[in-house]
Structure prediction request, 452 residues.
Amino acid sequence: MKFKNKIIISLFLGLLIIGFLGCNQSTTNTETTNANEEVSIVGEYLIDITDLGMPLVFYLRIDADDNFILSPDRTYETDKGHGTVGSSGNTYMLIYSDSTPDTPKTSTFEVLEGNLHFKSTLPYGASNLPASKEDDNDPNIVYYLLGKVLVYEDYFGEYAGSHTVSAMGSEVVYDYYLQLNSGREFKFVSNFTMNQEPYEFVETGFYDVDDGVVTLHLEGETVTGQFDSNRNLTIGIKASEMADRTERVLQVATTAACASIYYGYATKEMGGVIMYDTEMVLTLDKFGGYTFTGNDLISGEYSETGSFTIDGNNLVFSPADSDDTYTGSLVNFVVTAPFKVSSATSTRTEVTFYCKTIQGEFSAQGQDELENDYEAKLLLNSDGTFSLTLNKGEETLIDQLGSFSVRRFIFMQLILIAEDETRYELVISEVGLNVNFTLADETIIGFLLKKE
Prediction:
């Protein structure tokens, strides 16, 4: 892939690169593609800028005619920037259609392991996204803007397994999974407990798939495995750092995306008599199985097991002791489905269950510019209610009760509506809940609330 006016534009590109390197002293330990190696960048790329400050995912497509387009989804019907692509040596450039000599609009990148590593800002709509950003809490951690290639998509997902061994006079259970992701990236995680201490062993790297054979590229080692007709994978794994690599069968985790623990609550009173007052737990596993338990303060504990399927937002539950099926939904961390709310009844009632991601007590500490200390605490209950406090030293600035809901608006948000109708909007992330509080004096205090 070459520029049409190679001499002029190569000089322009070189000046841009020199300017970029002069302004950005961040370095990485990545290798670049050999200058003599022909690299095809035709394809689609996923760009996730969550770590760069905004929980947003969008897509880049480059075609065989050196054209590119950026869009929030893979239909590419919404144009967030388009133009042509050129290269000079190992460096590539996106040249936007509205770029001019007086006001150039470009972005440069290099290719590593099939992924795009941006070296300058990336225009996206009206925004200019930075090529890198330091972690807010640890300046030694730097996040980079990447375009992760979308290949081997038929094999994306999680493959899980477990086995038990005898060690030091006790049984040790190893639970592990292999995640095949975009960008040809894989992650293997093994969890186990030994002497009542939890351990985790992790391997990461890149992978390729060819005719049902997967090759994992680890540092100094390659490992191959074979998929069967049901997409189960036989491959050598290390269950711990000290373990030998041993061939195991990993089952495709068909329901890994929704596997979690969900909490619900239901109560009813008639004529001053409490009919039931029940806390419920619904566990969805990675292989389409579920376990439901209820604890009714009136009639005691009861349980149900079975299997489930998921299609989009729809869940279908099939109890093990019945030929009947029951339909529910899973939308934005919330399951709504019919279950028995008491052991004293055979009738099912629609119950709302909240994922463990948005259940429990969350807290954080912070400071303002004057180094005043703040502490925020948020309790999310299984009945959809919350309590929120914000203290400045010994002074209570916020003390609210109310209800919460979840919505997706560009990213996933937790919406708190207090009893006085004050509204708080939090962003749900993998590591916690992001929130900004505006105080009476217009001071804005930001927190990442983490589960205790």
